[in-house]
């Protein structure tokens, strides 16, 4: 006769399957596809007009070139704030690849301190180092963003879709999510 169990034993834990790592070839191919798209968008950047044209609207996504902005290293948070300044910010690898587009109504330091993008960047850099590939991730700020939140979010969205920055969730449909959750 079998004895009844008064204290059922927990089921054995199943081990999580190991997270697959992108091969060097897959990483380079992933970056190349993004680069080709972003270069085609960069070719659409407006050029010098003539004297009789109206001045371009600086808040038009086609008039903002993230690659022309001054890059700062990611430890910019250790520097003093420049005050409460609305801005758009761009995480860029010197490859050159635009990895992330964001906006803030707070100071960049306040926004960046606890940002989810940190883990993506860390994983991206770690994979490059594993394969001894060049990587130089920095951040650039554009302070011409509208102070009106709705307009700023619209401009951010236009830039995300224009450049298809791979760390923005809106673009995972094109590039996947190899460095995130």
Fold and architecture overview:
Helices cover 31% and strands 13% of the residues. It has a domain at 58-175. By secondary structure, the protein is an alpha+beta fold. 20% of the residues are buried. Residues 13-18 and 46-57 have low confidence and may be disordered. The chain has helices at residues 24-42, 108-112, 117-130, 149-163, 172-175, and strands spanning 71-73, 87-93, 97-104, 137-142. Strands 1-4-2-3 form a four-stranded antiparallel beta sheet, sandwiched between helices.
Order of helices and strands: HEEEHHEHH
**Overall mean confidence score, pLDDT:** 79
Shape: globular
**Low-pLDDT sequence parts:** 13-18, 46-57
Placed side by side, the strands forming the largest sheet appear as 1-4-2-3
Helix content: 25-40%
| H/I helix tally | 5
What is the distance, rounded to the nearest whole angstrom, between the alpha carbons of the first and last residues? 49 Å
Number of strands: 4
Radius of gyration: 22 Å
Report the sheet-strand fraction: 5-15%
Q: Major beta sheet, specifics?
A: 4 strands, antiparallel
Structural class: alpha+beta
